[in-house]
Request: fold
Amino acid sequence: MTGNTSDKPLIVGLAGFGTVGGGLARLVVENADMIRRRVGREILIKRVLVRDMDKARNVALPDGAQLTTDAAALADDPEIDVLVELIGGIKQARALIERALDHGKHVVTANKALLAEEGPALFVRAERAGRILRYEAGVAGAIPIVQTLKESLTGNHVLSLMGILNGTSNYILSEMAANGMDFDVALQQAQELGYAEADPTLDIDGHDAAHKLILLIRLAYGAHYPYKTLSVRGIRGLTCKDINFAKEFGYTIKLIAQVREIRESAQSREGGIPCLEAGVFPALVRNSYLLASVGGVFNAVRIEADAAGLLFFHGRGAGDLPTAGAVLADLLAVARDERPNNTGFQGEDLPLAVIVPPEEWRSCCYARLTVQDRPGVLRDIAGCMAADGVSVASMLQKSDDGRGLVPLVFMTHQTTAGAMDHALRRMADAGLLKEPAVCYRVL
Ligand code: NAP
Ligand code: HSE
Reply:
Protein backbone atom coordinates (compact mmCIF):
# COMPACT_ATOMS: atom_id res chain seq x y z
CA MET A 1 0.00 0.00 0.00
CA THR A 2 1.56 3.34 -0.96
CA GLY A 3 0.27 6.89 -1.01
CA ASN A 4 -1.86 8.64 1.51
CA THR A 5 -4.70 6.51 2.77
CA SER A 6 -5.78 8.70 5.62
CA ASP A 7 -6.01 12.34 6.52
CA LYS A 8 -6.41 11.64 10.22
CA PRO A 9 -3.49 12.84 12.35
CA LEU A 10 -0.62 10.43 12.89
CA ILE A 11 -0.46 9.93 16.65
CA VAL A 12 2.99 9.54 18.14
CA GLY A 13 4.25 8.16 21.42
CA LEU A 14 7.62 9.81 21.99
CA ALA A 15 9.98 7.86 24.26
CA GLY A 16 12.76 10.22 25.35
CA PHE A 17 12.75 13.98 25.71
CA GLY A 18 16.48 14.65 25.78
CA THR A 19 18.70 16.05 23.01
CA VAL A 20 16.99 14.30 20.09
CA GLY A 21 13.50 13.93 21.59
CA GLY A 22 13.48 17.64 22.48
CA GLY A 23 14.64 18.50 18.95
CA LEU A 24 11.85 16.39 17.47
CA ALA A 25 9.18 18.01 19.65
CA ARG A 26 10.40 21.39 18.42
CA LEU A 27 10.42 20.44 14.75
CA VAL A 28 6.97 18.83 14.86
CA VAL A 29 5.56 22.14 16.09
CA GLU A 30 7.73 24.54 14.06
CA ASN A 31 7.36 22.62 10.79
CA ALA A 32 3.66 21.75 11.18
CA ASP A 33 2.64 23.56 7.97
CA MET A 34 5.32 21.89 5.90
CA ILE A 35 4.38 18.50 7.35
CA ARG A 36 0.73 18.96 6.41
CA ARG A 37 1.66 20.04 2.89
CA ARG A 38 3.93 17.05 2.41
CA VAL A 39 1.79 14.25 3.81
CA GLY A 40 -1.69 15.73 3.99
CA ARG A 41 -2.09 15.07 7.69
CA GLU A 42 -0.86 16.33 11.05
CA ILE A 43 1.68 14.66 13.31
CA LEU A 44 0.57 14.87 16.93
CA ILE A 45 2.66 13.79 19.92
CA LYS A 46 0.29 12.32 22.50
CA ARG A 47 2.61 11.03 25.24
CA VAL A 48 6.25 11.66 26.12
CA LEU A 49 8.15 9.09 28.15
CA VAL A 50 10.91 10.32 30.50
CA ARG A 51 12.73 9.06 33.58
CA ASP A 52 12.29 12.16 35.70
CA MET A 53 9.01 14.10 35.54
CA ASP A 54 10.44 16.99 37.58
CA LYS A 55 13.53 17.69 35.46
CA ALA A 56 13.72 21.22 34.01
CA ARG A 57 13.30 21.04 30.21
CA ASN A 58 14.47 23.62 27.71
CA VAL A 59 11.88 22.57 25.11
CA ALA A 60 8.16 23.03 25.68
CA LEU A 61 5.90 20.00 25.49
CA PRO A 62 3.80 20.20 22.31
CA ASP A 63 0.16 21.16 22.92
CA GLY A 64 -1.88 18.21 24.10
CA ALA A 65 1.15 16.02 24.95
CA GLN A 66 1.48 14.46 28.39
CA LEU A 67 4.69 13.48 30.20
CA THR A 68 4.78 10.00 31.68
CA THR A 69 7.25 7.60 33.27
CA ASP A 70 5.13 4.60 32.30
CA ALA A 71 6.48 2.91 29.15
CA ALA A 72 3.33 0.81 28.76
CA ALA A 73 1.30 4.02 28.44
CA LEU A 74 2.96 4.46 25.03
CA ALA A 75 3.29 0.87 23.86
CA ASP A 76 -0.24 -0.21 24.77
CA ASP A 77 -2.25 2.91 23.91
CA PRO A 78 -4.49 1.90 20.96
CA GLU A 79 -4.64 5.50 19.76
CA ILE A 80 -0.88 5.72 19.24
CA ASP A 81 0.16 4.81 15.67
CA VAL A 82 3.92 5.11 15.99
CA LEU A 83 6.43 4.71 18.79
CA VAL A 84 9.47 6.98 18.45
CA GLU A 85 12.19 5.44 20.60
CA LEU A 86 14.80 7.99 21.69
CA ILE A 87 15.71 6.77 25.17
CA GLY A 88 18.86 4.92 24.02
CA GLY A 89 20.47 1.89 25.64
CA ILE A 90 19.66 -1.72 24.88
CA LYS A 91 17.48 -3.55 27.37
CA GLN A 92 14.66 -1.12 28.09
CA ALA A 93 14.63 0.22 24.54
CA ARG A 94 14.33 -3.30 23.15
CA ALA A 95 11.51 -4.23 25.52
CA LEU A 96 9.64 -1.06 24.64
CA ILE A 97 10.04 -1.54 20.88
CA GLU A 98 8.98 -5.19 21.06
CA ARG A 99 5.93 -4.31 23.08
CA ALA A 100 4.99 -1.54 20.67
CA LEU A 101 5.39 -3.86 17.63
CA ASP A 102 3.30 -6.50 19.37
CA HIS A 103 0.62 -3.86 19.88
CA GLY A 104 0.59 -3.10 16.15
CA LYS A 105 2.59 0.13 16.21
CA HIS A 106 5.17 1.23 13.71
CA VAL A 107 8.53 2.18 15.22
CA VAL A 108 11.01 4.93 14.46
CA THR A 109 14.29 4.89 16.37
CA ALA A 110 17.74 6.49 16.40
CA ASN A 111 19.13 3.65 18.49
CA LYS A 112 22.02 2.30 16.45
CA ALA A 113 23.46 0.36 19.40
CA LEU A 114 20.26 -1.65 19.71
CA LEU A 115 19.85 -2.24 15.97
CA ALA A 116 23.52 -3.21 15.53
CA GLU A 117 23.66 -5.59 18.45
CA GLU A 118 20.16 -7.01 18.42
CA GLY A 119 18.75 -5.86 15.09
CA PRO A 120 18.18 -9.21 13.38
CA ALA A 121 15.54 -10.33 15.88
CA LEU A 122 13.82 -6.94 15.81
CA PHE A 123 13.70 -6.84 12.02
CA VAL A 124 12.15 -10.32 11.96
CA ARG A 125 9.61 -9.28 14.59
CA ALA A 126 8.66 -6.15 12.67
CA GLU A 127 8.43 -8.13 9.44
CA ARG A 128 6.12 -10.72 11.03
CA ALA A 129 3.96 -7.99 12.52
CA GLY A 130 3.86 -6.19 9.14
CA ARG A 131 5.07 -3.04 10.84
CA ILE A 132 7.55 -0.39 9.72
CA LEU A 133 10.85 -0.09 11.60
CA ARG A 134 12.78 2.98 10.46
CA TYR A 135 16.10 4.36 11.70
CA GLU A 136 17.46 7.09 9.43
CA ALA A 137 18.73 9.08 12.43
CA GLY A 138 20.72 6.09 13.65
CA VAL A 139 23.53 6.65 11.14
CA ALA A 140 25.42 9.87 10.40
CA GLY A 141 22.84 12.28 11.88
CA ALA A 142 21.49 14.57 9.18
CA ILE A 143 23.03 12.70 6.23
CA PRO A 144 20.24 10.67 4.54
CA ILE A 145 22.43 7.63 4.11
CA VAL A 146 19.97 4.92 5.19
CA GLN A 147 17.44 6.02 2.61
CA THR A 148 20.19 6.36 0.00
CA LEU A 149 21.35 2.78 0.47
CA LYS A 150 17.86 1.36 0.88
CA GLU A 151 16.32 3.14 -2.10
CA SER A 152 18.53 5.30 -4.29
CA LEU A 153 21.48 2.95 -4.81
CA THR A 154 19.56 -0.29 -5.17
CA GLY A 155 20.52 -0.54 -8.83
CA ASN A 156 24.19 -0.73 -7.83
CA HIS A 157 26.60 -3.11 -6.19
CA VAL A 158 28.35 -1.23 -3.41
CA LEU A 159 32.05 -1.96 -3.85
CA SER A 160 33.25 -0.08 -0.78
CA LEU A 161 32.00 2.33 1.81
CA MET A 162 34.20 4.48 4.02
CA GLY A 163 33.10 7.09 6.48
CA ILE A 164 33.55 9.34 9.44
CA LEU A 165 30.55 8.19 11.46
CA ASN A 166 31.14 9.51 14.97
CA GLY A 167 30.71 13.23 15.48
CA THR A 168 32.16 13.23 18.99
CA SER A 169 35.45 11.61 17.94
CA ASN A 170 35.70 13.85 14.91
CA TYR A 171 35.06 16.90 17.07
CA ILE A 172 37.78 15.83 19.51
CA LEU A 173 40.33 15.08 16.76
CA SER A 174 39.54 18.36 14.98
CA GLU A 175 39.98 20.41 18.17
CA MET A 176 43.22 18.61 19.00
CA ALA A 177 44.59 19.21 15.49
CA ALA A 178 43.44 22.81 15.06
CA ASN A 179 43.85 24.20 18.56
CA GLY A 180 46.08 21.71 20.36
CA MET A 181 43.15 21.13 22.74
CA ASP A 182 43.51 18.47 25.37
CA PHE A 183 41.58 15.24 24.64
CA ASP A 184 39.50 15.43 27.85
CA VAL A 185 38.57 19.09 27.37
CA ALA A 186 37.41 18.42 23.81
CA LEU A 187 35.36 15.43 24.98
CA GLN A 188 33.71 17.53 27.68
CA GLN A 189 32.77 20.15 25.08
CA ALA A 190 31.27 17.47 22.84
CA GLN A 191 29.19 16.23 25.77
CA GLU A 192 27.99 19.76 26.57
CA LEU A 193 26.97 20.22 22.94
CA GLY A 194 24.80 17.07 23.11
CA TYR A 195 26.93 15.08 20.65
CA ALA A 196 28.21 12.31 22.92
CA GLU A 197 26.39 9.14 23.92
CA ALA A 198 25.14 8.81 27.51
CA ASP A 199 28.19 6.56 27.91
CA PRO A 200 30.89 8.48 25.97
CA THR A 201 33.22 5.48 25.93
CA LEU A 202 30.97 4.26 23.10
CA ASP A 203 32.16 7.29 21.12
CA ILE A 204 35.86 7.36 21.94
CA ASP A 205 36.42 3.60 21.85
CA GLY A 206 34.90 3.34 18.37
CA HIS A 207 31.77 1.37 19.29
CA ASP A 208 29.29 4.01 18.16
CA ALA A 209 30.94 4.21 14.74
CA ALA A 210 31.00 0.40 14.70
CA HIS A 211 27.26 0.21 15.46
CA LYS A 212 26.59 2.53 12.53
CA LEU A 213 28.88 0.56 10.24
CA ILE A 214 26.99 -2.65 11.02
CA LEU A 215 23.76 -0.94 9.95
CA LEU A 216 25.33 0.35 6.74
CA ILE A 217 26.73 -3.10 5.93
CA ARG A 218 23.26 -4.59 6.33
CA LEU A 219 21.79 -1.97 4.01
CA ALA A 220 24.56 -2.09 1.41
CA TYR A 221 25.10 -5.85 1.21
CA GLY A 222 21.91 -7.42 2.58
CA ALA A 223 23.90 -9.45 5.11
CA HIS A 224 24.37 -9.52 8.84
CA TYR A 225 27.85 -8.84 10.13
CA PRO A 226 27.74 -9.86 13.81
CA TYR A 227 28.75 -6.86 15.87
CA LYS A 228 31.00 -8.84 18.18
CA THR A 229 33.14 -10.03 15.28
CA LEU A 230 33.86 -6.53 13.95
CA SER A 231 37.40 -5.21 14.47
CA VAL A 232 37.02 -1.96 16.46
CA ARG A 233 39.62 0.51 17.67
CA GLY A 234 38.79 4.04 18.82
CA ILE A 235 40.73 7.22 19.50
CA ARG A 236 41.44 6.72 23.21
CA GLY A 237 45.11 7.47 23.92
CA LEU A 238 45.66 9.24 20.59
CA THR A 239 48.08 12.13 21.18
CA CYS A 240 48.86 15.52 19.64
CA LYS A 241 52.34 14.11 19.00
CA ASP A 242 50.98 11.71 16.34
CA ILE A 243 48.56 14.30 15.00
CA ASN A 244 51.54 16.62 14.45
CA PHE A 245 53.78 13.95 12.89
CA ALA A 246 50.93 13.03 10.56
CA LYS A 247 50.68 16.72 9.61
CA GLU A 248 54.39 16.75 8.70
CA PHE A 249 53.78 13.90 6.25
CA GLY A 250 50.70 15.69 4.79
CA TYR A 251 47.99 13.67 6.58
CA THR A 252 45.16 14.18 9.08
CA ILE A 253 44.17 11.53 11.62
CA LYS A 254 40.50 10.51 11.47
CA LEU A 255 38.40 7.76 13.01
CA ILE A 256 37.39 5.74 9.96
CA ALA A 257 34.68 3.11 9.52
CA GLN A 258 35.24 1.03 6.42
CA VAL A 259 33.79 -1.92 4.55
CA ARG A 260 34.94 -3.36 1.25
CA GLU A 261 33.60 -6.33 -0.65
CA ILE A 262 36.21 -8.85 -1.75
CA ARG A 263 34.50 -9.87 -4.95
CA GLU A 264 37.22 -12.30 -6.00
CA SER A 265 36.56 -14.45 -2.89
CA ALA A 266 35.48 -18.02 -3.65
CA GLN A 267 32.65 -18.03 -1.08
CA SER A 268 31.35 -14.79 -2.48
CA ARG A 269 31.38 -16.07 -6.05
CA GLU A 270 29.76 -19.39 -5.23
CA GLY A 271 27.08 -18.55 -2.68
CA GLY A 272 26.28 -14.95 -3.61
CA ILE A 273 27.00 -14.12 0.03
CA PRO A 274 29.25 -11.07 0.32
CA CYS A 275 32.79 -11.55 1.60
CA LEU A 276 33.62 -8.40 3.55
CA GLU A 277 36.63 -6.62 4.99
CA ALA A 278 35.21 -4.31 7.66
CA GLY A 279 36.34 -2.40 10.71
CA VAL A 280 36.65 0.84 12.64
CA PHE A 281 40.10 2.31 13.24
CA PRO A 282 41.99 5.62 13.47
CA ALA A 283 43.83 6.25 10.22
CA LEU A 284 46.03 8.84 8.59
CA VAL A 285 44.05 10.34 5.73
CA ARG A 286 45.95 12.13 2.97
CA ASN A 287 45.15 15.86 3.14
CA SER A 288 44.13 15.94 -0.51
CA TYR A 289 41.24 13.49 0.21
CA LEU A 290 37.83 14.98 0.99
CA LEU A 291 37.56 12.91 4.18
CA ALA A 292 40.58 14.74 5.64
CA SER A 293 38.76 18.06 5.57
CA VAL A 294 35.63 16.82 7.38
CA GLY A 295 35.92 18.78 10.63
CA GLY A 296 34.14 19.19 13.95
CA VAL A 297 30.86 17.34 14.46
CA PHE A 298 30.49 16.71 10.73
CA ASN A 299 30.26 13.16 9.36
CA ALA A 300 30.93 11.96 5.85
CA VAL A 301 30.33 8.81 3.84
CA ARG A 302 32.21 7.93 0.67
CA ILE A 303 30.67 5.17 -1.42
CA GLU A 304 32.11 3.49 -4.46
CA ALA A 305 29.42 1.68 -6.46
CA ASP A 306 29.67 -0.22 -9.73
CA ALA A 307 27.20 1.88 -11.69
CA ALA A 308 27.26 5.22 -9.86
CA GLY A 309 31.02 5.43 -9.36
CA LEU A 310 32.16 7.58 -6.46
CA LEU A 311 29.68 9.37 -4.20
CA PHE A 312 30.44 11.58 -1.22
CA PHE A 313 27.94 12.65 1.48
CA HIS A 314 28.71 15.28 4.11
CA GLY A 315 26.67 16.73 6.95
CA ARG A 316 26.18 17.16 10.67
CA GLY A 317 26.56 13.82 12.41
CA ALA A 318 25.04 14.65 15.79
CA GLY A 319 23.14 17.28 17.72
CA ASP A 320 19.47 17.98 18.41
CA LEU A 321 17.99 19.40 15.21
CA PRO A 322 20.19 17.62 12.64
CA THR A 323 19.26 14.28 14.21
CA ALA A 324 15.63 15.20 14.88
CA GLY A 325 15.22 16.19 11.22
CA ALA A 326 16.11 12.62 10.24
CA VAL A 327 13.65 11.20 12.80
CA LEU A 328 10.93 13.47 11.44
CA ALA A 329 11.63 12.32 7.88
CA ASP A 330 11.00 8.75 9.04
CA LEU A 331 7.76 9.83 10.69
CA LEU A 332 6.64 11.48 7.47
CA ALA A 333 7.40 8.25 5.61
CA VAL A 334 5.19 6.37 8.06
CA ALA A 335 2.51 9.05 7.70
CA ARG A 336 2.50 8.39 3.95
CA ASP A 337 1.63 4.78 4.82
CA GLU A 338 4.62 3.30 3.12
CA ARG A 339 4.85 -0.48 2.94
CA PRO A 340 7.37 -1.97 5.41
CA ASN A 341 10.74 -2.27 3.68
CA ASN A 342 12.83 -2.53 6.78
CA THR A 343 16.07 -4.13 5.63
CA GLY A 344 15.83 -3.13 1.97
CA PHE A 345 16.11 -6.82 0.96
CA GLN A 346 13.50 -9.53 0.42
CA GLY A 347 13.06 -12.30 2.96
CA GLU A 348 12.44 -12.39 6.63
CA ASP A 349 16.05 -12.76 7.67
CA LEU A 350 19.39 -12.01 6.02
CA PRO A 351 22.41 -14.32 5.59
CA LEU A 352 25.63 -13.92 7.55
CA ALA A 353 28.47 -12.16 5.71
CA VAL A 354 31.72 -14.00 5.06
CA ILE A 355 34.35 -12.12 7.08
CA VAL A 356 37.96 -11.39 6.12
CA PRO A 357 40.17 -11.60 9.26
CA PRO A 358 41.70 -8.19 10.16
CA GLU A 359 45.29 -9.49 9.98
CA GLU A 360 44.78 -10.03 6.23
CA TRP A 361 43.83 -6.39 5.59
CA ARG A 362 46.28 -4.56 3.34
CA SER A 363 47.26 -0.90 3.75
CA CYS A 364 50.23 1.39 4.17
CA CYS A 365 51.07 2.01 7.83
CA TYR A 366 52.34 4.80 10.06
CA ALA A 367 54.51 3.68 12.97
CA ARG A 368 56.09 5.83 15.70
CA LEU A 369 58.78 4.01 17.58
CA THR A 370 60.66 5.32 20.59
CA VAL A 371 64.19 3.95 20.53
CA GLN A 372 67.54 4.56 22.17
CA ASP A 373 69.69 7.12 20.32
CA ARG A 374 72.65 4.87 19.47
CA PRO A 375 74.54 3.78 16.34
CA GLY A 376 72.85 0.92 14.48
CA VAL A 377 69.38 1.33 15.95
CA LEU A 378 67.91 2.35 12.62
CA ARG A 379 69.51 -0.70 10.97
CA ASP A 380 68.04 -2.99 13.66
CA ILE A 381 64.56 -1.54 13.29
CA ALA A 382 64.70 -1.71 9.49
CA GLY A 383 65.92 -5.31 9.82
CA CYS A 384 62.83 -6.27 11.85
CA MET A 385 60.56 -4.76 9.21
CA ALA A 386 62.47 -6.44 6.38
CA ALA A 387 62.19 -9.81 8.13
CA ASP A 388 58.40 -9.52 7.90
CA GLY A 389 58.44 -8.16 4.36
CA VAL A 390 57.44 -4.64 5.43
CA SER A 391 58.95 -2.04 3.13
CA VAL A 392 59.65 1.53 4.31
CA ALA A 393 58.30 4.35 2.11
CA SER A 394 59.58 7.32 4.14
CA MET A 395 60.96 8.12 7.55
CA LEU A 396 61.39 10.99 9.99
CA GLN A 397 63.76 11.18 12.94
CA LYS A 398 63.54 13.87 15.60
CA SER A 399 66.36 14.82 17.92
CA ASP A 400 67.05 13.25 21.31
CA ASP A 401 64.34 14.08 23.86
CA GLY A 402 66.90 14.68 26.61
CA ARG A 403 66.52 11.13 27.95
CA GLY A 404 68.68 9.61 25.21
CA LEU A 405 65.53 8.46 23.38
CA VAL A 406 64.43 9.44 19.89
CA PRO A 407 61.14 9.02 18.02
CA LEU A 408 61.53 7.27 14.67
CA VAL A 409 58.46 7.73 12.50
CA PHE A 410 57.94 5.46 9.50
CA MET A 411 55.47 5.37 6.64
CA THR A 412 55.46 1.95 5.02
CA HIS A 413 54.43 0.70 1.61
CA GLN A 414 51.36 -1.57 1.44
CA THR A 415 51.57 -4.48 3.82
CA THR A 416 49.19 -6.64 5.81
CA ALA A 417 48.15 -5.76 9.35
CA GLY A 418 49.47 -9.19 10.38
CA ALA A 419 52.97 -8.55 8.97
CA MET A 420 53.12 -5.10 10.57
CA ASP A 421 52.07 -6.44 13.98
CA HIS A 422 54.61 -9.19 13.70
CA ALA A 423 57.43 -6.75 12.85
CA LEU A 424 56.50 -4.56 15.85
CA ARG A 425 56.46 -7.60 18.14
CA ARG A 426 59.87 -8.61 16.79
CA MET A 427 61.23 -5.11 17.69
CA ALA A 428 59.73 -5.28 21.17
CA ASP A 429 61.10 -8.80 21.75
CA ALA A 430 64.56 -7.59 20.71
CA GLY A 431 64.36 -4.84 23.36
CA LEU A 432 64.49 -2.09 20.71
CA LEU A 433 61.34 -0.23 21.79
CA LYS A 434 61.62 1.96 24.88
CA GLU A 435 57.90 2.80 24.81
CA PRO A 436 55.01 0.88 23.21
CA ALA A 437 54.93 1.39 19.43
CA VAL A 438 52.13 3.53 17.99
CA CYS A 439 50.80 2.25 14.67
CA TYR A 440 47.94 3.44 12.46
CA ARG A 441 46.71 2.57 9.02
CA VAL A 442 47.26 5.08 6.22
CA LEU A 443 44.58 5.80 3.58
P1 NAP B 1 19.54 11.97 26.01
O1 NAP B 1 19.75 13.41 25.73
O2 NAP B 1 20.31 11.34 27.11
O3 NAP B 1 17.97 11.75 26.26
C1 NAP B 1 17.45 10.52 26.67
C2 NAP B 1 15.98 10.70 27.05
O4 NAP B 1 15.42 9.45 27.32
C3 NAP B 1 15.79 11.55 28.29
O5 NAP B 1 14.65 12.36 28.14
C4 NAP B 1 15.53 10.52 29.40
O6 NAP B 1 14.68 10.97 30.41
C5 NAP B 1 14.86 9.42 28.62
N1 NAP B 1 15.13 8.10 29.17
C6 NAP B 1 16.32 7.46 29.20
N2 NAP B 1 16.17 6.23 29.74
C7 NAP B 1 14.88 6.11 30.04
C8 NAP B 1 14.09 5.08 30.63
N3 NAP B 1 14.63 3.92 31.00
N4 NAP B 1 12.77 5.29 30.81
C9 NAP B 1 12.20 6.44 30.44
N5 NAP B 1 12.89 7.47 29.86
C10 NAP B 1 14.20 7.30 29.68
O7 NAP B 1 19.83 11.10 24.70
P2 NAP B 1 19.87 11.59 23.19
O8 NAP B 1 21.20 12.21 22.92
O9 NAP B 1 18.65 12.35 22.86
O10 NAP B 1 19.90 10.19 22.41
C11 NAP B 1 18.74 9.41 22.29
C12 NAP B 1 18.99 8.30 21.27
O11 NAP B 1 19.34 8.89 20.02
C13 NAP B 1 20.14 7.36 21.61
O12 NAP B 1 19.83 6.08 21.12
C14 NAP B 1 21.32 7.94 20.82
O13 NAP B 1 22.30 6.96 20.50
C15 NAP B 1 20.59 8.40 19.58
N6 NAP B 1 21.25 9.47 18.82
C16 NAP B 1 21.67 10.59 19.46
C17 NAP B 1 22.24 11.61 18.71
C18 NAP B 1 22.72 12.88 19.35
O14 NAP B 1 23.30 13.72 18.63
N7 NAP B 1 22.52 13.10 20.64
C19 NAP B 1 22.39 11.45 17.33
C20 NAP B 1 21.95 10.27 16.72
C21 NAP B 1 21.37 9.29 17.48
P3 NAP B 1 15.06 12.18 31.40
O15 NAP B 1 15.10 13.39 30.51
O16 NAP B 1 13.98 12.23 32.40
O17 NAP B 1 16.41 11.84 31.96
N1 HSE C 1 27.37 10.13 19.82
C1 HSE C 1 27.09 10.14 18.44
C2 HSE C 1 28.19 10.87 17.71
C3 HSE C 1 25.76 10.78 18.19
O1 HSE C 1 28.97 11.56 18.36
O2 HSE C 1 28.28 10.75 16.49
C4 HSE C 1 25.32 10.66 16.77
O3 HSE C 1 25.00 9.34 16.46
